C-alpha cells in the first residue's frame, strides 16, 4: 500500500464564504426562509481540502486575522487540517453569495488587503520551515495579486528547492514567472493564465506547448496547463501529452484546477511518476465540477475514475 504523504499548502488568501440557498422542506415557501451555509474558500484552502480528502496529512500556512480569520482557523482545524497561522491585522476577506435564483449573485464582499512587511516575513518563515519538513509543498497565489508581491514567491521557491523540497506551484502572472525561474518540480497554470503572463499569444495546443517548452528550458521539471473543458496539456523534457477525461455535466467549475493541483501533489508525495500524478489530478478536477462543494470529493471515487482518464502522447 502506498504511503500517505505530508503536504504543506502555502495559502496567502483564505476567504470566508457565506452562501444563501433556497430553503428545502415543508417551510421552504414561508416568509424569508433560506438555507445559509458558511464555507472555507480561497485557492489554498481548496487545495488543502482536496489533498486531505485524498488521504494526505495537510498543513496550511497562511495569514489569519479578525473575526473572519478566527472562523476560518476554527473551521479548518475542526476539519482536521493543521493550521500554521500568521497574524493578519487587516483580517481575512469575505464573500456573501445569494444562490436562491439558481445563479450565484454576489451581494457583499470584503476584499483582501496587502500583507505588511512583518506579516510577509512571518509567512515566509512559517512556509519555509513547514515546506521543507513536508513531503511536498504547494504554492498557491494571492487574491488579488497585490496582497503579496511576486518576489516573495520567487525567494520562497528558491529556498524551498535548496532544501530539497518537492515543489508544486499553482500560480499566475508575475508570481508564476518568478517561481518558474527557480525550477519547481511542477508548475501548473490555466491556459488563460499562460496568455495573461505573456508566455503565449493564443490558446492553441501548439502555442501553449511552445510556452511550456520555454519554461522547461528555464528549469521547470513539468508544466501542466489546464484548458477548461479541453484536454490538459502536460510537457516534460522533450515530450508532451494531452490528458483526456470523459466530459461530465458541470454544476460548478470553480475549484476544479485546485483539485487537480492537490491530487498531483498527493500523488507525487506517494512517489508516483509525474504522468500518473497528472492522471489523478485530472480525475479529481473533472469530478469536482459535478459537486457544489469546492475542493471536495471521495478518494475512492477519484482513484477509480482515474482509470477512465486517457493519456495521448503528442508528436
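Sequence proposed for the structure above (315 residues):
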Amino acid at each position: 500500500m502506498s504511503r500517505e504523504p505530508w503536504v504543506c499548502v502555502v495559502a496567502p488568501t483564505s476567504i470566508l464564504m457565506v452562501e444563501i440557498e433556497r430553503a428545502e422542506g415543508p417551510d421552504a415557501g414561508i416568509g424569508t426562509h433560506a438555507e445559509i451555509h458558511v464555507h472555507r474558500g480561497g485557492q489554498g484552502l481548496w487545495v488543502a481540502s482536496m489533498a486531505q480528502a485524498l488521504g494526505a496529512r495537510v498543513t496550511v500556512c497562511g495569514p489569519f486575522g479578525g473575526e473572519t480569520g478566527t472562523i476560518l482557523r476554527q473551521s479548518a482545524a475542526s476539519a482536521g487540517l493543521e493550521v500554521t497561522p500568521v497574524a493578519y491585522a487587516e483580517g481575512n476577506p469575505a464573500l456573501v453569495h445569494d444562490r436562491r435564483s439558481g445563479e450565484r449573485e454576489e451581494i457583499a464582499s470584503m476584499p483582501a488587503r496587502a500583507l505588511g512587511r512583518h506579516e510577509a516575513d512571518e509567512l515566509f518563515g512559517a512556509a519555509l520551515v513547514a515546506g521543507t519538513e513536508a513531503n511536498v509543498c504547494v504554492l498557491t497565489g494571492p487574491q488579488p495579486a497585490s496582497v503579496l508581491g511576486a518576489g516573495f514567491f520567487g525567494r520562497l521557491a528558491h529556498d524551498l528547492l535548496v532544501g530539497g523540497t518537492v515543489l508544486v506551484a499553482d500560480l499566475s502572472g508575475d508570481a508564476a514567472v518568478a517561481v518558474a525561474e527557480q525550477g519547481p518540480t511542477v508548475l501548473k497554470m490555466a491556459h488563460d493564465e499562460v496568455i495573461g503572463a505573456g508566455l503565449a499569444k493564443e490558446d492553441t495546443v501548439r502555442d501553449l506547448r511552445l510556452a511550456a517548452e520555454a519554461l522547461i528550458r528555464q528549469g521547470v521539471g513539468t508544466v501542466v496547463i489546464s484548458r477548461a473543458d479541453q484536454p490538459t496539456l502536460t510537457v516534460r523534457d522533450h515530450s508532451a501529452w494531452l490528458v483526456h477525461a470523459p466530459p461530465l455535466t458541470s454544476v460548478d467549475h470553480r475549484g476544479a484546477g485546485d483539485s487537480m493541483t492537490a491530487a498531483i501533489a498527493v500523488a507525487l508525495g506517494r512517489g508516483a511518476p509525474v504522468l500518473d500524478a497528472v492522471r489523478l489530478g485530472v480525475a479529481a478536477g473533472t469530478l469536482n465540477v459535478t459537486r457544489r462543494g469546492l475542493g471536495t470529493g471521495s478518494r475512492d471515487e477519484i482513484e477509480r475514475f482515474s482509470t477512465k482518464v486517457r493519456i495521448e502522447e503528442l508528436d
